[in-house]
Design a protein that fits this description.
Blueprint (H helix, E strand, L loop, with lengths): L8 H4 L11 E4 L2 E4 L1 H9 L10 H30 L8 H16 L11 H10 L2 H5 L4 H11 L2 H21 L1
Antiparallel strand pairs: 1-2
The protein binds glutathione.
Family: Belongs to the GST superfamily.
Protein name: Glutathione S-transferase domain-containing protein
InterPro entries: Glutathione-S-Trfase_C-like (IPR010987), Glutathione-S-Trfase_C_sf (IPR036282), Glutathione_S-Trfase (IPR040079), Glutathione_S-Trfase_N (IPR004045), GST_C (IPR004046), Thioredoxin-like_sf (IPR036249)
């Protein structure tokens, strides 16, 4: 894992990511940007992250797209308005509706696809685990789902490694 310094990234980082954003993934000679594309690439390497049968694979990709295009598309804009001092913005109703629809889905299943953890769960839980999103309304099934994914040892380790990496990078800068 490498850290991209925030300062200067709009010019220094464009060769990796045309919008100057993170994440990006280097896998050998292959360079990829967009978190969905990076996750899909990694998931295709192992059936632990994505079923290999046609139906399971298609449904995993479907829920990855839904996480990014139907949930995160609303939640990031809503979150941004919130932290910019507009908590009662026009996106709140849309956000509440999407989260309520998702709560219905998550009320009768533990995992999105194939009755087991897939990369789609990793992506959806990452979209849902944002504190402001979790605090909007009361959605017990969604809360249990986020905890189910983020309590997995692999998630706990990856998160701890990432925080340690950021801490080290901050110390190196100061
Ligand atoms: N659609 C992109 C969004 C990436 C994104 O928004 N990254 C944020 C950090 S989580 C970022 O780099 N923000 C800085 C900026 O947009 O200038 C993806 O999923 O990779």
């Amino acid at each position: 894992m490498k850290t991209v310094p925030f300062d200067g990234r709009q010019t220094n980082h464009l060769a990796q990511q045309p919008f100057g954003q993170v994440p990006y993934l280097a896998d050998g000679d292959l360079q990829l940007f967009e978190s969905g594309a990076c996750l899909l690439h990694l998931a295709e390497k192992s059936d632990k992250l994505m079923p290999t049968d046609t139906e399971g694979r298609a449904q995993t990709i479907q829920w990855m797209m839904a996480s990014l295009n139907s949930i995160e598309m609303v939640s990031v804009a809503w979150w941004f308005l919130n932290i910019s001092g507009e908590p009662d913005n026009n996106l709140s109703g849309w956000m509440e509706k999407r989260l309520a629809q998702l709560e219905d889905v998550l009320s009768d299943r533990e995992w999105l696809v194939a009755n087991r953890f897939t990369v789609a769960d990793l992506l959806l839980a990452d979209v849902l685990r944002v504190p402001q999103v979790r605090e909007l309304g009361n959605r017990p099934a969604s809360e249990r789902y986020v905890a189910r994914v983020t309590n997995r040892p692999a998630f706990v380790k990856a998160f701890a490694d990432q925080i340690a990496h950021f801490k080290q990078a901050d110390e190196a800068r100061s």
